[in-house]
Amino acid sequence: SMYASGQPALYTADKNSLPFLMDHYQRVATGPTSTFVHDLQYYHDTLDDTYMRSVEDKLQLPMLQFIDENKDRWGVDYLVRPDGPPFITLDVADKLRELGLNSKGFRELTLRLGSPVLVNDGVLRIALTGFDKKEHDSLLPEMLQRIDFMLSLQPDDPIVVKFLEANPFYAAAASVPSEY
């Protein structure tokens, strides 16, 4: 994960190991990770060794329990069940087929619902970082409610019907699995 995102590397880092990470990224980083290199000094200066632990304890673990309890009802499953932050990644391809939406459509719908999530090729990613640590306790109930709302949607729900009527280009093409 060190190559894909700086967050997992920082999860196990402390201020004393950041110089190693900075040197490593400057030598091997490509693509989006090379952009991350420019932010490393900021992370070094602002690193809170308890932040990712708070993300895991106060957001991820309760959210995983909530997902475990509801995933069958929603018709989704983990792509891979995470063993640490910063993301929860769900396979929502069947849910998208059920709703008649492609990935871009579901992403746009969640944005309009005020719950933006990353969705691509039938995979939904819930980002858990970026929130102030002091707000983790108060954010969790709202996050769980929004996840439940968006994953409980049914094809005949007025919001889905109206969305597809207004945006037919977000309808899933039944014969093209990659549309999800």
Automatic annotation (TrEMBL):
Superkingdom field: Eukaryota
Protein name: Uncharacterized protein
